[in-house]
Amino acid sequence: MPRFAANLSMMFTEVPFLERFEAAAQAGFDAVEYLFPYAHPEQEVAAALQGAGLTQALFNAPPGDWESGERGLASLAGRDEEFVEGLETAMSYAQALDCPQIHVMAGIPGPQGPGRRTVEQALNHEAAEVYTRRIRQAADRAAAEGRRVVIEPINHVDMPGYFLGSVALGLQMLERIDRENLGLQLDLYHAQITDGDLTRLLRSSAEVIEHIQIASVPDRHEPDAGETSYPHLFSVIDEIGYSGWVGCEYHPVGRTEDGLGWFHALQSDAGESGQSGKAQQ
Question: Which residues form a coiled coil (predicted)?
């Protein structure tokens, strides 16, 4: 069974951020992720993480001016100094949180005109050169501390104009950037919208997947409804040998704990399987 990490930017929002760590632990999670920790000093975040006995699976590097609509700097021309400063901030938090990997967001490089870019159009866009250089820079900086960088394709319904707009493009960029400590953050919610064919996508991308995230499609709620069959996808995740965390990046329909029936059922099934396995030994 996959190992699940609670996303504290979306889950357990009934309590303040630093209290969500303990709430996640009490609900049965062993790890957490979130968008950004930077509103709190790294020592406070680390204390909350360690106090709850949790593992930090992932967080994002600073995205630029989020409030004004920026969604990352990696593909934005003329922002070199800010990108480097943000990268250093992320590395400092990663060290405090003992976090093995950081997601560096691509950003929205500007109006793209009518329709969406094809993979070929994106690869030939001027932003691709900036993005390639910046992600190489981020990966090299992370490698100096034994950490990884991941890139995440995000759909254009939720984030219009985002440079990395499909898994197909993400795979092409991984090959172009060519860094050993660089991998794919595969959010199955986004991937269903951008690429579809999730079973084959998981199998064909297995070698480069470093982090997986889940949510129902199309509403981005608990992964027990909507058009995707997560019980099937969890079996595929096991089949491909993925051993990393699966981030629960969804908006609960109501109170977070009230929507965790799918999670507790999987825990129960795993416990019964473990007991059965021990009985057979």
Answer: none
- Where along the chain do its domains lie? 3-274
Residue 15 phi/psi, 5° resolution?
Answer: -125, 160
Dihedral class, residue 161 (left if φ above 0, else alpha if ψ from -120 to 50, else beta): left
- Rg of the chain in Å (alpha carbons): 19
Distance CA 31, CA 26 (A): 12
Q: In this structure, what token pair is assigned to residue 259?
A: 């929507």
Most confident of 105-119, 174-188, 257-271: 174-188
**Over residues 177-201, mean pLDDT:** 98
Neighbour-count burial for 220-233, b at 16+ CB within 10 Å, e otherwise: bbbbeebebebeeb
In this structure, are residues 216 and 224 in contact, taking their beta carbons and an 8 Å threshold? yes
pLDDT tens string 145-155? 999 999 999 99
CB 57 within 8 A of CB 246: no
| Residue 43, burial from CB neighbour count under 10 angstroms (0-12, 13-18, 19+) | exposed
Q: What own/partner pairs with CB < 8 Å and gap ≥ 24 does 169-172 have? A: 169/119, 169/122, 169/123, 171/205, 171/208, 172/119, 172/123
Residue type, 159: M
Cα 254 from Cα 108, distance rounded (Å): 31
Place of tokens 């600073």: 62
Give the angle subtended at the CA of 53 by the CAs of 50 and 57, to the nearest 5°: 80
> Can you name the residues that pair with 60 across neighbouring β-strands?
103
136's tokens: 């190489």
- Positions marked active-site: 152, 249
pTM of the predicted protein model: 0.94
